[in-house]
Design brief:
Chain lengths: 95, 298, 290
């Protein structure tokens, strides 16, 4: 499942996309993110999934444009710690 | 909504709260550029989302300022603001050597000789007002900007929050209406707050309902006002972090007059903020300084 | 009290054919949304009854009221229901539900039941959010996004316009077509800015209908952009409160060049229906039936 966490508002589209079929629930992204954007838990959108999966935590879903801002400087783009930490490549950013 | 201050050098208007050293350094930058013809008048027009502001300069001195609410005709508002400022200065349109427009509606100002981007105008004004400025934060009615500038006032980097009311002055206005508090009372009210109440809604429309729930939950207006300012300051601070904040930080735009917002932003950034006495005219000042240079042919 | 132009009417339905006493598995789904709450009861996987009403300020109470409303005159009581799944914005506060599931999962499942296995894309426009969901033939979610951060493209945006124009929300769709020619969409996405834009248009002398048309098409465009992120695959269905606003739905269809399936039931019950279906599956799992 492709889970899009985030939103679109007048200023643009801000989604973190988790490919739950690729995610193995290792949780490395949880510790890699300096702002606590991720959490590991049961897949709320698939009641029959047996294993845990990564999610964008409820408190960040409505403000990820701001939560992720420090990792996305206007110039001198750096690599994102969450993407770096994810071996299966389950995490993507839309912006 | 008219500031009636004539003939004061804007360099002398630097916020007295500014730390020692900074204002003194302002003077040279604020002096009339070398070679500017004696008695040359220029105007800067900031055609913003909510109001049009005009500032007339003569040899680096502010002759007049005028602001007119845009309503639904920004072009007419800009023309009216210009005429009002001209009356204050005792001048007519033909006395102006150059008019530079800026703001969202800059292209609609048909009497302008040239235009400059808002980012450029902000940088120009901040550099003139506070030569030590490296970061400029401008929060207007519908837009917020953070700009990093060089010691020479050149734009290095900038980020803009636009097209979403959550990151601009409109947010506070909407919440003030819901709280049934005059928007100018929001700041002083929030300073009396005893508790930090979190606000979850990001969208101004949803935040309105959240404010209603907070009122029902018996939170004081003071605490809610602070929550509103904390929420918007948090968004502005994140935007500023995208460009890498460097000291000194100058805060301009109409929202800089809201002490509640200023306090929240200071608390968030943990840095001193330098605010000129007429923060809402900053863009107009930048445009006017540009007009002076262009009139001279620099 | 001022007229509340944005209220949806309440509704209730009971199947005349089903004898619940003969059923083996009785399950229910309760969807406590921000604006309205629905309760659906199913007997052996067939729709038995439902009720839909406005959500009050207290969500556990709204769940109870919706349930009572659905069960009234059926003879069935809460204790007769084997498993109850709660969903929606107020799902965590439903004391009598055994499990809470997301609206995403429930809407996909509910739409799969309502429209059949050919449904691949579901758009649910609720009171405070907008969901775009892709699912497989079994109603399992394969791709989704939900926007509950921004009021644009949600029922709330429409409510703001209903109030501004003093038009009952049920009339908005029809009225938005009462224009000579389709105007340019409102340019601001943000509801706050769109509202001031609309005030300007009204002052310019635009009739309400034209302003509504301009806002409805702006809203449709925005929703289409969200749908494109998950890539629309036919069949396409629209659920939730805004599904009843043909002014928005027809404009979405026009922009997508895809027709939405004709709804068979009240589109607002999709979430609760999905909840009741999951409840049945969970009972079967417990009883070792699957």
């Amino acid at each position: 499942m492709l889970a899009h966490y985030g939103y679109k508002d007048g200023s643009g589209e801000y989604f973190i996309v988790v490919d739950t079929d690729k995610c193995d629930g290792c949780g490395r992204c949880v510790s890699a993110c300096p702002y606590g954007v991720f959490e590991i838990g049961e897949d709320e959108n698939d009641p029959f999934r047996e294993t845990v999966v990564v999610k964008v935590s409820e408190s960040h879903r409505k403000k990820i444009k701001y939560s992720c801002a420090p990792c996305k400087p206007v110039s001198g783009k750096k690599s994102l710690p969450c993407l770096e930490s994810c071996a299966p490549g389950a995490i993507g950013h839309s912006w | 909504m008219r500031a009636n201050v004539k003939g004061r050098a804007f360099a002398a208007e630097v916020d007295p709260r500014a730390k020692p050293g900074a204002p003194a350094a302002v003077a040279p930058a604020a002096a009339a550029p070398d070679g500017l013809e004696e008695g040359m008048n220029v105007a800067g027009v900031d055609c913003g989302a909510k109001s049009a502001k005009v500032l007339i300069l003569r040899d680096g001195e502010v002759l007049a300022r005028s602001a007119v609410l845009s309503g639904f005709d920004p072009k007419a508002a800009a023309a009216q603001a210009l005429d009002e400022a001209l009356i204050q200065a005792g001048l007519s349109r033909s006395d102006l050597a150059h008019v530079t427009a800026t703001g969202t509606g800059k292209n609609e100002v048909d009497f302008a000789s040239s235009s400059i981007t808002e980012v450029g105008a902000d940088a120009r004004a901040a550099n003139a007002l506070f030569p030590a400025a490296r970061t400029v934060i401008d929060i207007g009615a519908e837009e917020g900007r953070a700009i990093r500038i060089s010691p020479q006032g050149k734009v290095i980097d900038f980020a803009i929050n636009e097209k979403c009311a959550a990151g601009a002055g409109t947010f506070t206005e909407t919440m003030a209406r819901t709280l049934e508090v005059a928007v100018e009372d929001m700041g002083p009210l929030s300073l009396k707050s005893q508790n930090a109440v979190p606000m979850n809604a990001q969208c101004a429309v949803f935040a309105e309902s959240e404010v209603v729930s907070l009122i029902h939950a018996k939170h004081s207006k003071e605490d809610i006002a602070r929550a509103v300012h904390d929420a918007i300051a948090d968004r502005i601070a994140s935007m500023a972090r995208k460009i890498g904040i460097e000291k000194d930080i100058v805060l301009v735009g109409g929202v800089a007059k809201n002490v509640g917002f200023v306090t929240s932003l200071k608390r968030n950034l943990k840095e001193e903020l330098f605010i000129p006495p007429y923060p809402e005219y900053s863009c107009a000042l930048g445009a006017a300084l540009t007009a002076a240079e262009r009139a001279k042919g620099v | 009290m001022a007229t509340e132009y944005w209220r949806w009417p309440e509704s209730r339905w009971t199947s005349p054919e089903i004898d619940w006493k003969a059923g083996r598995i009785v399950t229910a789904g309760i969807d406590v949304g921000s604006v309205s709450s629905q309760a659906v009861v199913m007997v052996d996987g067939a729709l038995f009854c439902y009720g839909s009403l406005r959500t009050g300020s207290n969500s556990p109470e709204s769940a109870q009221r919706a349930m009572d409303f659905a069960l009234a005159e059926t003879g069935l009581v809460l204790a007769d229901i084997h498993y109850i799944v709660g969903t929606g914005y107020g799902r965590v506060n439903i004391s009598f539900a055994q499990r809470a599931l997301t609206e995403i999962a429930c809407h996909a499942r509910g739409a799969n039941f309502m429209y059949g296995p050919t449904v691949k894309t579901i758009l649910d426009m609720g009171g405070q959010d907008c969901k775009a969901i892709r699912c497989d033939a079994k109603g399992k979610v394969t791709n989704f996004l939900m926007n509950d951060k921004c009021a644009a493209g949600t029922g709330r945006g429409m409510e703001v316009f209903a109030d501004l124009l003093s038009v009952p929300i049920a009339d908005m769709g029809r009225m938005s077509f009462e224009v000579e020619a389709e105007p340019e969409p409102v340019s601001s996405t943000c509801v706050v800015f769109a509202k001031s834009e609309a005030v300007g248009l009204l002052r310019k002398g635009w009739p309400k209908e034209k302003v509504l048309a301009a806002y409805s098409s702006a809203m449709a465009h925005r929703v289409v952009e969200l749908l494109q992120r998950i890539q629309v695959e036919e069949d396409f269905a629209v659920t939730g409160g805004i599904a009843k606003n043909e002014g928005v739905v027809k404009r979405i269809e026009k922009e997508l060049k895809i027709k939405a399936l004709e709804p068979k039931f009240d589109t607002q019950i999709a979430g609760a229906l999905g909840g009741a279906l999951f409840a049945k599956a969970l009972v079967e799992k417990d009883r070792g039936l699957r």
